[in-house]
Amino acid sequence: MKSGEDCNKSRRGFIKVIGAALIAVPFLQFCSDKIAVLLIRLSGTKHLLGHRLWIKDFPKPTKQIQIPYLIVGGGISGLSAARQFQKRGISDFLILELENHLGGNSSNGQNKYSKYPLGAHYLPLPNFQDKELLYFLEEEKIILGYDSKGFPIFDELQLTFAPDERLFYKNNWQEGVVPKNGNLVSDDLEFEKFFKQMDVFRTSKGEDQKYLFDIPIYLSSKDEKTRTLDKITMKQWFKQHHFTSEPLFNYIDYCCKDDFGLGIEYVSAWAGIHYFAGRKQDSTSEKHDSVLTWPEGNARLASHLKKYTTDKSLKNHLVYEVKIENQKVIAKAFDDATKTSVEIIADKVIMASPQFVNQYLISDRKTFTKDFQYTPWLLATLVVNDLSDNGSFPLSWDNVIYDAKGLGYVYDQHQTLNQVQDKKVITYYYSFSSADLKKTRKELYKKDKEYWKQFVLNDLKIAHPDIEECTEEIEVFLLGHGMISPAPGFIFGEAKKQAKQNIQKKIYFAHSDLSGISIFEEAFHQGINAVNELLDDTTLDS
Amino acid sequence: MGKKFLKFEFLLLFAVFIIATCGLIYELVAGTLASYLLGDSVKQFSFIIGVYLFSMGIGSFFSKFFHKNLLNTFVEIEILVGLIGGMSSVVLFLLFENVGSFQFILYLFVFVTGFLVGLEIPLLMNILKDRVEFKDLVSNVFTFDYIGALLASILFPLVLVPKLGIMGTSLFFGMINVSIAIVLCYLLKRELKKVYFLKAKAIFSFVLLLTVFIFSNDILAYSEGKLYGENIIYTNSTPYQRIVLTHNKSDYRLYLNNNLQFSSADEYRYHEALVHPAMSIAKSVKNVLVFGGGDGLAVREILKYKDVEKVTLVDLDEGMTKLFKTNTVLTGFNQNSLNNPKVTVINTDAYIWSKSCKEQFDVAIIDFPDPSNYSLGKLYSLNFYQTLKTILKPDAVAVIQTTSPYFAPKSFWCINKTVMQVFPQVDAYHAYVPSFGEWGYTIAINGFGTTFNTVNRKAEKLKFYNYQFDRFNYFTNDMISNEIEINRLDNQILVRYFDEEWGRLQ
């Protein structure tokens, strides 16, 4: 459906166009003046440094470090592993990170007006059974206590403020991201049927008394019938269940891209359903689908975890080789700041780095690594002096435009207490969902910042016709390997199983790509579980 | 009679039809505007219809003085009617501030439009008299005239005003008027003289009307401050709100963004009820905090207690507090309270300020605007009251203006219930303020060291409050609402209640 381009000129927008034509000369002058000062920055993860792993032209190590435990990778799984080491009373570990900061996908930027996410930006309320996560949130005062019924009390300031979501659909903003106003009766019936099915999936358990869909994924039931859903795409599932509604199709497509980067056509049906059924929405008595969020996104959670790595981290360090020699693990890393290399001799290592990197560090991993596919992402943070639209529903935290290319934008200052903001900061999200992600990734790095600027503005113009004149600054941030993509067959496939295997009880693996979906909870548990496995194996050895 | 002539005749009759419709529309617009802005709609409509019909008569009378170029004159009048009628509402809106000239201009417009429309019908009959039999001519012209009138009177209240607004309607019909002239210019180019000149005039008028039509919202926004039905003596737009002060007999009224903030005739009821219960219940009143209330009227009441040592007023809008410090009419109302040496005015966001405030207060008077949007809704949230508690001394008293328990009971009790989550003692009370209706307050004590019925001190010469708190905290059934949720930042349920309840009244 093309609700977008053709009929989306609202009356006001239309009138503005006429107005512009009538006083064309001064007006155009005004626009070009504005654009001339528009500041664009293009940045991203350090992919160029990473690509040196292909040729490994690094200097010989000139320094040696001995440490019992080494963590490679300072994203959430690495940081969570560091926390778990400390919880288990171990503090002689070291964490290495390629970027100049810890946090991985949970990083952020900051400008004069606000912090903003450079990756993951929210955490849905955890499942009530996920005690480890609840405990972490309690430690960090995100949960302030428990009420008389035993439900956690979340800090009001860290839950999304209302209004939390709106959707630009049929030329109007409406509350929530599910298309409602303007649907056909048949659409509404399909939505109802779909959500009922998801409710069943959410609450059903297999014969093993485990939820069919759970978080972390490994807790899910082994039920064979449910697992066959991983063999087809979400679109195939949609068709098999005789769904035809276009708004429903687009809504599911949006949800899949939002969590997995891959759209309905390419994502595994098991993963697609997991989006709706994995979160039990059972940790509060009333508002079920709320999320925790911060202006800087999940970088807030990363910063809580970072305190466990004080004086134990080396940043700008690209690990380029990890091998076992004489019962020790030897890791070599290149220090991008001093352009020298360092050799770390550890008893045990946790590889909290993604598998597409690990294949270059450790031998014999390429065969199964090729099944690990990663979706590229683009984030654009805009500073706007006004964000006018047709006023049909007020600016919300998450603002989604139906039928747009991207996933809409987040209003980064939504969690502030002020009455007014001089300038507004918004972050636009786009995932490169495609059948050939490698090809897409190559193309992505070829485009210049001017191209991306126009791309982002054109997408936002659907709901904000004058956004271009109002934008003062755009920062485009590219993530070549944004997140692991659960294409059919991956979550319960062999490759993932093999990659997860430890090597001689010396090298352990922890990363959300080993779960198959890139969400905070998975990375958090990956880190904890890897440390527990490593330490418990050690206890057994001795 | 050939085909071509039929076309000519029907074209002109169609023009009659349009003129009649437009003419009546202008008349209705004038009547509506007049009753809208001057009140007494029976009188206004009656006068306007009378003047309109009378001026049509004058127009008809003068039509006999036109002999040459009748068709050209007809088209010119068509353009003129469109331009004058179309612009009439815009000019009237903008002129409203000056009531004396408003009435004059209003009737001038009505007269001119009536005159021109009155000219047209006889003129047309003169044009057609040699081509059509007189009997047919009269019957046709008047048939179309009256059909047009009927159409206009039905469309106006049912479709036009709701869809286009008054200003939009008159401009829109002005454009229709002028476009008929343009069409006539093209179709009758052989019969008309100097057709280019006419065309240019018509197109220029059309573009003018269209431009104004496009910007009609802005014009409306500009003139909205002038729609209060009272004499406006002061207007000012600050970055946060539009302040309008009106005067009518002995009553001054202050509007913020078109919402009545106070009426000088009865504001003492509102402010005495807001301030004195808290001031008398509190154990100490040395250090008093006021949120909102940039008009200084609450501060005026606070300063009636001699043991007040310091008043801190936090109001976001510097424009507002400055106005109430400097304007002599206004400082007369607040008895110059904001310039009192005991008073410190801080212009900043109250929520942010409370988060970083290191001081603690004996009394807090909270007089924020009603929670009509999500930004204001934050100032009534659980977290806000938790924050407030941190800047209150033990046993301090806080009072919060809580909208109307009669018009918005859910909103009222939602705020009350939210405050109850934070403070050990909470009660509600209400007072009748004629210009507002029944109005309510939530009052809280940060401890058990005093009670709501305690009177620790009294101010003299109050007109309304008599220090009998238990006479104000009784609520009849129509002001009670149960089953309400607590207002939190993540649900902002209050804004929804408020919208639902006040939306129903509009």
SSE layout:
The complex is a heterodimer of chains A (about 550) and B (about 500).
Chain A: H1 11-22, H2 24-37, E1 39-44, H3 47-50, E2 61-72, H4 76-87, E3 93-96, E4 108-110, E5 115-117, E6 122-124, H5 131-139, E7 143-146, E8 152-154, E9 165-169, E10 172-175, H6 185-203, H7 224-227, H8 234-240, H9 246-260, H10 269-277, E11 291-293, H11 299-306, E12 313-314, E13 317-325, E14 328-335, E15 340-351, H12 355-361, H13 366-369, E16 374-384, E17 398-401, E18 409-411, E19 424-431, H14 437-446, H15 449-461, H16 467-470, E20 471-484, H17 494-500, E21 507-509, H18 520-541
Parallel strand pairs in A: 1-20, 2-3, 2-15, 3-12, 9-17, 15-21
Antiparallel strand pairs in A: 4-5, 6-11, 7-8, 9-10, 13-14, 14-15, 16-19, 16-20, 17-18, 18-19
Helix pairs in contact in A: 1-2, 4-18, 6-10, 8-10
Chain B: H1 3-38, H2 41-62, H3 70-95, H4 99-128, H5 134-187, H6 195-214, H7 216-224, E1 231-237, E2 242-248, E3 251-256, E4 259-263, H8 267-281, E5 287-292, H9 297-302, E6 310-314, H10 318-326, H11 328-333, E7 343-346, H12 350-356, E8 361-367, H13 374-377, H14 382-390, E9 392-401, H15 409-420, E10 425-433, E11 437-445, H16 493-505
Parallel strand pairs in B: 5-6, 5-8, 6-7, 8-9
Antiparallel strand pairs in B: 1-2, 2-3, 3-4, 9-11, 10-11
Helix pairs in contact in B: 1-2, 1-3, 1-4, 1-5, 2-4, 3-4, 3-5, 3-6, 5-6, 15-16
